[in-house]
Structures are given as C-alpha cells and as structure tokens.
Amino acid sequence: MTIPLPTLDLQSLDADHVLRAFIGWWPDVQTRAWLAEQALQAHAIYGGRMMQPDHFHLTLAFLDGSRVSDLQTLATQMAQWPVPQIKMDLTMRDVFEKPRVVWAGPDASQSQALTALQQWHEEIWAKLIALGWTRQPRLFRPHVSLLRHAQIAAGQPHGHALPTQAFVGDGVGLIVSVPGEQRSQYHLAAMIKPERTGA
C-alpha cells in the first residue's frame, strides 16, 4: 500500500502556517496507467494541462486552507480510521465546466458504489467536524481529474463512455498542496493504515 508522493513532516512547520489540504484516495499503479492513457486521449480533444500520473486521486474531502496545528492533530487521528471495501469501476469521462476540469469516474448505474462513497464521505466529514473543521456546501461527485485548464465548450454534452477499469485503491492520505514555480506539488502528510483499500 503506497502513495507515490514526497512526504511532508508537519511537525517541522510553523503551527500557525496555513496550507491547502485534502483527503484523497490513491489508485494503484495499473489504475494510474489507465488514467494516464485516458488523460492523453482527453487532451487531444480538450487541450489543457494533464495531471501528473502520480497525482491521480479521488478526493474524499477538501480541507481548503488549514492551519498546520490542525493538520497535525488530524494526521495523528486519521491513521486508524477505517477504509471501507468499495468495488467501483471507472466507466465514463465528463467535465466540470466552470473549473475547466475533465474527469473520469463511475456512471450512474453503479448505485451501490456511489452510495458507499457518499457514506464514506459523510463519515469522514463527521470526524472532521468533531475535530473543528467547518464543512463548506459542496456537492460530492466521485471523480478522478484527468485535465485542468481544459477548453470546454459551454452548454454541450460531454459525457463519454470509457472502457471499464476497476479503481483499485492503494492508499488514503492527508495531502498538502505546496506551491511551486510552475505548478503545485502534492506532499503526503499522513496515511490511513488499514490492511488493504479498494476493490
């Protein structure tokens, strides 16, 4: 079980510093290779910026700007959180028009997986609220971003069936986005450590 990102030691940072963070579910190597192929095909249609292969993930909770001291507490608490066994296939490509994102995810026929993911999302947020986080009003749509800054024609259907690929999870982590000269770099600050995640 692994998340292929550089690690970040939260204890070495100023407790009052604010960082953008999220909790993400990382796919295994085979799933990431499939996602990279889909990103390449989508890029030929939409342009934009392809996600780095090691950055492919399904976001379970956005934490936005969070104080390092709060992230330190969360990192300690979340290590023993349960990870449900969810069987999910990536079967469609679609877009989020306003943020100009092209993504892959499960289609509506996978009601059992979508229900399980929604429940997991709610359970995570219940824990976060208990730790002092404030939940922002966001619709949870399970997806893996393929492209950002895509050229998306407004008001047109973009849903497209993809060859089925099982999403096999290989780790759930607390991820901090560290600004860089050209793009942000994800850093792993903590992991949930069950025996196995995913399908």
From TrEMBL:
Source species, domain of life: Bacteria
GO MF term (any one): RNA 2',3'-cyclic 3'-phosphodiesterase activity
Keywords linked to the UniProt accession: Hydrolase
Coiled-coil stretches noted in the UniProt entry, renumbered to this chain: none
Gene3D superfamilies per the UniProt record, alphabetical: Cyclic phosphodiesterase (3.90.1140.10)
Record has Hydrolase as a keyword: yes
Domain Phosphoesterase HXTX: 36-103
Matching InterPro entries: Cyclic_Pdiesterase, Phosphoesterase_HXTX, RNA_CPDase
The protein's name: RNA 2',3'-cyclic phosphodiesterase
